[in-house]
Structures are given as C-alpha cells and as structure tokens.
Design goal:
The protein folds into two domains: 275 residues, no CATH class; 161 residues, no CATH class. It has 17 helices and 14 strands. A hairpin with a 2-residue loop joins strand 13 and strand 14. Helix 8 crosses helix 11. The N and C termini lie far apart (54 Å).
Length: 495
C-alpha cells in the first residue's frame, strides 16, 4: 500500500478540496496507485524533523490498498485502521520526499526551505525540491510573494482562462497566460524577471555528496506564481515533478528500496543543478565577495561546499573556482594570528561584540566552559542579525530572528562553508555530516534575550534552527553555547 504524509500546515488545502484533486491531475502517479494521505505528524519515523516537507511518499506492507485516494485530516488521527501501517514506516520505506515553492522573489523564498531539505536528507530520505527556474519580483507592491495586490489582480483575471485550459486537459503555461494578459490589456510584470539563484542548487549538491543521499531540484514553470491556487496544480506544468515521483515509485516497487544516487533516477536533475551552479557563477560569482574569506582560503584551500567550477582537476586554492562566503555582507570573520594561543582568538573576538549586542552589564568570558575543540578552530564566523528590517512599519520585535530566510542562511553557511571537507572519490563537494565536525566556529549574534530564545525552542522552528546550528549564541543578556555543546540538555552560559 502507498501512503503519503502531507505537511499538516496544508490541511486547509484539503478542506478547500485543492489537494484532494491534486492526485487526480493529468500525469499523476496516483491515478493508478491510489494512496492513503495522512498528516506527516502522524508518522513516528518523521518526528525528528523540525518542520515537515510538503509530501513524503512511502510504501508499506499492507494488503488493504484503497481503490481511490483516501484523505485523513488531523482530527481523524489516530486512525485505528491505519495505525499499524503508520508505525511500521521506517526511513527505508520512504521512496521520496518532495518540497514545493511557487515563488522565486529575490531568490529568498527558495532559501527558506533548506532546513526542511537538511532534516530530510540527514535522515537518509531521497529529496527533491520543486521550484520555478525563474520568477518575477513584484517590486513596489504591498508585499512580495503570494497574495500581494498585483498578484491577486493577475490571478483573478486569469482564472477563467486557467479553468478552460485545465478542463480541456491542455497545458497551463506562462506563455499562454501572457497572451491572455495582453488580450485583457493588463501590463505583464516581466521587467523584473529573476533567474534562479545558485545557492539552493549548490546546497543540494553539497548535501547529496556529503550524505550520499539523493538531493536535487526539479524545475517547474513560473506560471505557478500567477495561476490561481485552484488551477495552478493542474498537472500539466507539474509534469517534471510527477515524472520523478513515478520513477521513484517504480524503482521502489522493482527493488524494494528507495532509489539511490547511483540509480539513474536523479541524473537529469543533478545535471541541471550543476548547469545552474555554473551559470550562476558566470553571472555573479565574482561579485559580492568577502575579501577576508577569499584571502584566507587562497592560502588554506576553500571548503568543498564552495566549489563552483567542476573540472577534472579543480583548483581548490583559487577564488576563480569557488564561491565566496555565502553571507558576505552579514558576517564578520576573526582569524587566529600566527603564533596566537587558543584562548587569545576568543578574547580578541568578543570585545567589539559586547557593545553591539549586550543590553546589560556583561560578565567575563568563561574560557574554561568553552569546549577545547572550539578553542582550537582557527576562524570564527559571526553571523550578524539586525533586530528588525528598517522601514517595515509595525514589525514584530526581533523580526529577523524569526524570519525563515535569516535562519536558513545559517544552515547554508554551516553545510557549505563551516564544516570540514572530506575526500571521497566521486563526491567532490562532500563535507562533514556532523554539526560538531566543523572547521570553523559558527557564531550567531541575535538581538534578543536568551530567555525568549530558549523558552520557544520547542514551538518555534526558526528559533530552534539558531540554537541547533550555531556553536555560539550572542544574545542581549549573555553568550551561550549552541545545543550541540550543551550538557544535560541545558543551555551553557560562557559570558
């Protein structure tokens, strides 16, 4: 029996019937393989995930395969009829994890999902990230992304045409919708079109090489940014996603295990990721660099996760083959001077930070509480987070700390920049798979009290990302070790 775990936050789409129709679209693998759809939170094997992906497709040993797709809501759980099947799911039963985004605004929306990708791949689950290859940044509107004023206007105008195309089982493409906009006399928002940023693609390739688990992107038509919700998942523009789902399900049924990196199922997507990384490097790889980072690594060698230009003999020590630090304008670097003792780097590093973040009289830095492994690292990367975005009237306190994009960049820097490189044949971007196996110290400067950060650790996924991935947390009332270094699951104050 096939069983699909869906993101519990999408339950409203099931109540609105949108997601109920999704498996019935043209090209869907669930037309001839009906599945039981349940909230992903009801699958115990997925409990380690900080946030859930949109879909988890699993195969379980159960002869009661439904004749049509069955949807269970959170209030239907626990479902006694399927309880044994849910508890029997292991990671090796999951054929594919799928995460979607319909927007490419400023390339930030795509970054927001990488914690979800990290959790999935680190659990050993084959993962694909469906996103538009390009999108339109709707500048000067009341907000970006879905449901801004311009987007709502376009969606309302296009709804009849989208419905007609879907009912006639014809592709819903941006090209066709552009013609309809011109016929209606509506200006096309194409003057600010963005192409895909390579950061997400580089992250996926680094995760795949590090964990030896499939992780790649799948391209979908940018029409999904403008077609109304009830019609944009018509199936025609999602054919690439349906195809890879079909291939993974076929492979699982034939081999009784998920498709691996060498299975051939993900080859085309991996090649497209490499093309995007190279094109992104050619377009902007030499701009917006951190000069201190580049100078240090031209001597000591760049991390594998920075590798941009793939060749038979890549020059590891050349900035012409590597991306720079992935947050070049948001990070301060402290580098150990020649002959400097282990504690000296930390003592020198902390002085300017006290004035920036501390709102109370700071206590002395307790070097004895800092693990020796951290003291020996030669570089400290400090990710600076402002309290709020200027110009945003009515912004909540510590808004940026609670922003998915800011927290996701910490994961990006950890995986691609801060960890130890590994030498594994055929996996050129392989990095350490242990959060404590870092080459550098990763610190986060957060303009909020530690009590606020730690008290919401369990119920706020963004706060949890800061605590889980940073080695050191610089809060308004003190300095603490990240969760990887906690003792007895309690925060450790070092200053």
């Amino acid at each position: 029996m096939w069983l699909v775990g869906y993101d519990p936050s999408d339950v409203h789409l099931i109540r609105l019937q949108d997601l109920r129709y999704w498996p019935l679209r043209h090209g869907s693998p669930f037309l001839d393989r009906p599945a039981v759809w349940v909230p992903a939170s009801a699958i115990p094997a997925l409990s380690p995930c900080s946030e859930h992906a949109d879909l988890y497709i699993a195969k379980v040993q159960d002869d009661r395969a439904p004749r049509q797709n069955v949807f269970l809501l959170p209030e239907d759980m626990p479902a006694e009829a399927y309880e044994d099947a849910l508890h029997s799911i292991r990671r090796e039963n999951i054929a594919l994890t799928v995460e979607f985004t319909y927007h490419q605004d400023w390339s930030t929306n795509t970054l927001q999902r990488i914690r979800i990708l990290y959790d999935s791949v680190s659990l050993g689950l084959p993962t694909v990230y469906a996103l538009p290859s390009s999108g339109v940044a709707l500048r000067g509107t009341e907000r970006r992304g879905d449901r801004n004023a311009v987007q709502r206007k376009i969606q309302m105008a296009l709804a009849p045409e989208c419905e007609r195309l879907v009912r006639e089982n014809k592709p819903v493409t941006w090209e066709k919708l552009q013609k309809q906009l011109r016929a209606l006399g509506i200006d096309e928002p194409t003057h600010t079109e963005n192409v895909a940023d390579p950061k997400v693609h580089l992250f996926c390739r680094t995760m795949q090489d590090s964990y030896d688990v499939p992780c790649c992107t799948v391209r979908i038509d940018q029409v999904v940014s403008f077609a109304p919700n009830e019609w944009k998942v018509s199936g025609s523009q999602l054919s690439a996603v349906f195809n890879i789902m079909q291939a993974c399900m076929d492979y699982f049924e034939a081999n009784e295990k998920p498709a691996g990196v060498q299975s051939g199922v993900f080859t085309q997507s991996n090649d497209l990721d490499e093309d995007t990384i190279l094109e992104g490097w050619r377009r902007a790889g030499h701009r917006n660099r951190n000069d201190t980072w580049d100078r240090y690594h031209e001597v000591h060698g760049f991390p594998n996760g920075c590798l941009a230009v793939m060749s038979t003999r890549p020059n590891r020590n050349s900035a012409t083959h590597n991306f720079s630090l992935h947050i070049p304008d948001l990070a301060d670097l402290s580098i150990r001077n020649f002959g400097e003792s282990d504690p000296a780097l930390f003592s020198r590093w902390i002085k300017p930070l006290r004035k920036r973040y501390h709102r109370v009289r700071p206590s002395p830095l307790r070097l004895k509480r800092i693990p020796p492994a951290l003291l020996k690292r030669p570089v400290i990367i400090t990710y600076r987070v402002a309290s709020y975005a200027r110009g945003r009237e009515g912004a909540e306190r510590w808004q940026n700390v609670n922003e998915r994009t800011y927290a996701s960049k910490l994961v990006l820097v950890d995986v691609c920049d801060a960890r130890e490189s590994r030498k594994i044949p055929g996996r050129p971007r392989a990095m350490s798979t242990s959060p404590t196996g870092r080459r550098y110290v990763l610190a986060a400067g957060l303009p909020m009290p530690s009590s606020e950060l730690f008290s919401h650790y369990e119920d706020n996924a963004r706060y949890r990302t800061w605590v889980d991935f940073a080695d050191i947390l610089i809060c308004a009332d003190g300095i603490f070790l990240g969760k990887s270094w906690w003792q007895n699951s309690r925060p450790v104050r070092i200053g």
